[in-house]
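Entry for flavin-adenine dinucleotide complex. Fields follow.
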Amino acid sequence: MALTAPAEAVGSLQPIVWHEPRGSYEVVIIGGGGHGLATAYYLATRHGITNVAVVEADYIASGNTGRNTTIIRANYAIPEAIRFYDHSMKLYEGLEAETGAAIFHRKKGHVWIAHSEMGMRTERGRVLMNQAMGVDTELLDPAGVKALVPQIDLTGGGRYPILGASHHVEAATARHDRVAWAYASGATNRGVHVIQHRTVTGLLRDGDRVVGVETAAGPIRAGVVLSAVGGRVSQLAGMARVRLPVRTHPLHAFVTNDFEQGLDKIVASTELACYVSQTERGQMLIGAEFDSQPSFSRISSFDALRSYAYKITALLPFLRSMRILRTWAGLCDISADFSPIMGDTGVDGLLITTGWGTWGFKAIPAGGEAMAERIATGRTPDLIAPFGLDRFRNELAMADQASAGTR
Ligand SMILES: Cc1cc2nc3c(=O)[nH]c(=O)nc-3n(C[C@H](O)[C@H](O)[C@H](O)COP(=O)(O)OP(=O)(O)OC[C@H]3O[C@@H](n4cnc5c(N)ncnc54)[C@H](O)[C@@H]3O)c2cc1C
């Protein structure tokens, strides 16, 4: 039996068709976040593989996909990452046309300010590397920063002077939950099953091979299992006795009350580990660094809130008159080199997409597309080949911490 969610509940999105789960599928994807849903969508649309189930412990986008600050950019500092995120950014640009779903994709530009000579050196290097890879990023002096962000205090409250910035022209934002729903509806309308409120509690084995998942409502067999479980990845990998170079850290964000539209750019400071953009509704959406202590807590602390608010108001004093409406946290799967991990796990039948940390929303289209290709063809696409788990064993880490934008 197929149940259809009412169209009006999702605006211009296509309704999602909910199916009764079966006992076995060609592909089972664990985790109904952006990466799991996008992989299912591209399996169906690019490869005609629809005998697929996405098994989600809670509701879709209940993890980091529905908790993030929605920044989409490609201004990374290493060629492999720039190439990957640039492709993702382009897929995002075409996503509304491809899926017919309104995801509120808006190009804004990302101004990454520097407060020290070392910070300027980092931004100069980023601009050169971006331009060499064909990505539109320019270097700004303080006057250039002021021209793009008139509200900014160039003295940083007398404490964090602004020496310049890089400006990544193509950076954008999009509504996070709509992205998840666009992929979910695109997939379910082609026959993919999205099974919500069902936690995977174990992996089925046949000798060394993973052949399905165990859930509270019984086993589901699968030809291939993909783990896309966000911050819960260590437990999931542990079920297959795989140890990953990943730790889970909470990351916080908050929004203020509405304000008339006027902050056109996404403004970020790596040195202060804070950033802000204005939402469609007019709220200021503010993010910061992840907690240094690994944990699975999604409780926001007043101390953290005070510290982010202090830094961001030093840069944009008009924020002082605003009220904080909501704060929340997500559980980020931070890899040892601050780059994602995609592909084989070394366990037959089990693939992984993880290490998305504080930066994986922008990667959802390209990550999903590449994982779908890996599953459908058995070959790892060139775009994600540098991001395999084996890089840690082969001393080919993709260190790019300064591009994570938080810590
Ligand atoms: C506050 C915050 C701000 C951020 N800002 C940005 C940003 O501006 N730009 C950016 O690019 N990235 C950002 N990120 C990071 C981004 O949100 C994540 O990297 C991305 O959403 C990861 O998607 P995912 O599908 O891998 O994981 P998730 O969206 O977390 O999905 C994983 C899903 O797996 C499910 N699951 C877990 N265990 C099981 C199980 N055993 N069985 C079944 N299901 C299970 C969970 O319930 C969850 O729904 C931010 C993150 C946070 C927390």
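NOTE: The pocket of flavin-adenine dinucleotide is lined by residues 30-36, 55-58, 62-65, 67-71, 199-200, 228-230, 232, 236, 251, 253, 287, 330, 332, 356-362 (CB under 6 Å).
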